[in-house]
Automatic annotation (TrEMBL):
Signal peptide range: 1-19
Gene: LOC124294936
Organism of origin: Neodiprion lecontei
InterPro entries named among the record's database cross-references: GH, GH_1_N_CS, Glyco_hydro_1
Cited PANTHER family: GLYCOSYL HYDROLASE, LP05116P
Family, as annotated: Belongs to the glycosyl hydrolase 1 family.
Keywords attached to this entry: Glycosidase, Hydrolase, Signal
Protein name in UniProt: Myrosinase 1-like isoform X1
Presence of the UniProt keyword Hydrolase in the record: yes
Amino acid sequence: MDCYFVALIICLVLATVSCCDIVKLTFPSGFRFGAATASYQIEGAWNVSVDTFYHFPDKGENVWDYWTHNYPGYIADGTNGDIACDSYHKYEEDVQLLKSAGLDFYRFSISWSRVLPTGFTNVISEDGLQYYKNLTAELVANGIEPIVTIYHWDHPQVIEDMGGWTNELMVDWFVDYARVLFEALGDTVKKWITINEPRSFCLLGYEDTQKAPGKVISGIGAYLCMHNVLKAHGKTYRMYDEEFRDVQQGVIGMAFSLITILSANSSDTVSADVGFQFEVGWNTHPIYIGDYPEIMKTRVAMISEAQGYPRSRLPELTDDWIAIINGSSDFFGANLYTSVLASPDPDEELGIYNSDSGIILEANSSWSRAASSWLYVYPPGFGYTLRQIRDYYDNPPVWITENGYSDKGELEDYDRISYFYDYLRELLIALKRDGCDIRGYAIWSLMDNFEWQDGIADKFGIYSVDFDDPARTRSSKLSTAWWARVTSTRKLQAVPTNSNARIKLPWE
Ligand SMILES: *[C@@H]1O[C@H](CO)[C@@H](O)[C@H](O)[C@H]1NC(C)=O
Ligand SMILES: *[C@@H]1O[C@H](CO)[C@@H](O)[C@H](O)[C@H]1NC(C)=O
Ligand SMILES: *[C@@H]1O[C@H](CO)[C@@H](O)[C@H](O)[C@H]1NC(C)=O
Ligand SMILES: *[C@@H]1O[C@H](CO)[C@@H](O)[C@H](O)[C@H]1NC(C)=O
Ligand SMILES: *[C@@H]1O[C@H](CO)[C@@H](O)[C@H](O)[C@H]1NC(C)=O
């Protein structure tokens, strides 16, 4: 009996020691919190100024301007980003929003056609650049680090007229554009994200009408798009190495579109991994391992042949390109929100190929869903995928570049706070128990904004924006106050049970 009790006490002590660090739910010193946005979703001012020398609009039309103006039927509520949150005029207030929530960094993106109205570097808009200089200066003056996304889906329409991401010339046009930004902002900006979520815009913009440019090039468009994205990213990384890194000492990565893929049948040890390689490895393997996943190369070649194509629809990375792309990343940017279950497509036994992966992905019907149709809540999936990145890519430094929850705009956003709590708890376990090298976390999003094909009805902000008000007044939500407590204590906070906690903004 005595022995039993001693053993029990020893077990309890051991269990407490190994878990209490996590149970306390504190973040390591040096862990950074921020919020993210994207230019087209918040800036507005789509046609803001006229160049006094050339006498043409000093902000070029981009693919999202063109798409929403010409095909509003593809946007759930027919809205567009002409005004959006009007952040072009309200950036000083936006910096105060970040400061009130106690955030350490702001991840925002730059509008290519605002900086280069013709799409090319023959004309550089001084106003356009000045806007981003003003914004970064305002951030720094308030102790907030700028983290810049060079491209978040809004390339100039003139470039799309020439094929956009399906044209390999895009690679050099992108590098030219990035160079202008390094030159103009690289003294203050030390963290760069080249391209946001290629998987999303390659699949939904070049094989579907969910995102601009809405070209349906089935089976080919997305692979070609990703191929050129990888080249543009790799070449930009090498250009920074050669021309800027010594002096500017910054870091460069990409924000990948991740999705947690779990097995639908616990005795199926294959499908979830195949799904991961097709959905995630497609983008991350070339950068971290040097080439597309073997299974992708094999299956796409086999199915292309069965379909009568003379060569694989998945382009090949040559040795020269592999040398440029392999290892072109200083950190792993993870945009991660949702999970799916993978199972084999039963049609394949009949020789019918419905997809290149041969895998069916569906949500577990028992998971709850956010307002967005694609966003299912399954917190353990978050930790699972963080460990998967650790194992696949030799534990790279990870920044969560996006994570968040959509609702219909409730100011008492308890569901959003619960989501943050559960996902951040998984993050802490991955970091402290499992040794994942996670450096920071960006909330998607700082404020409600134009949510692409979903218009302005689905809202992700920790601040609300009144889109009926020409002044686009911002208000805090319950989650703002919750975040302010997390950032001031550096500790996860319980989900509140009443709404007294709302914080006041400086101008209220
Ligand atoms: C800019 O676009 C708005 C619509 O968003 C339009 O009313 C206005 O006339 C345009 N301004 C210029 C200078 O083209
Ligand atoms: C940048 O800031 C200056 C000084 O506050 C202001 O006059 C100018 O309008 C701003 N420019 C832009 C494009 O925001
Ligand atoms: C779906 O979710 C339920 C409830 O969490 C769980 O019991 C079940 O195992 C899940 N199914 C799969 C295939 O993961
Ligand atoms: C799960 O997989 C096993 C092994 O392949 C198979 O025997 C079983 O029928 C599957 N279960 C379901 C529910 O599909
Ligand atoms: C990519 O780089 C790593 C590390 O240098 C190397 O081990 C690997 O072989 C390279 N991959 C390819 C396909 O060359």
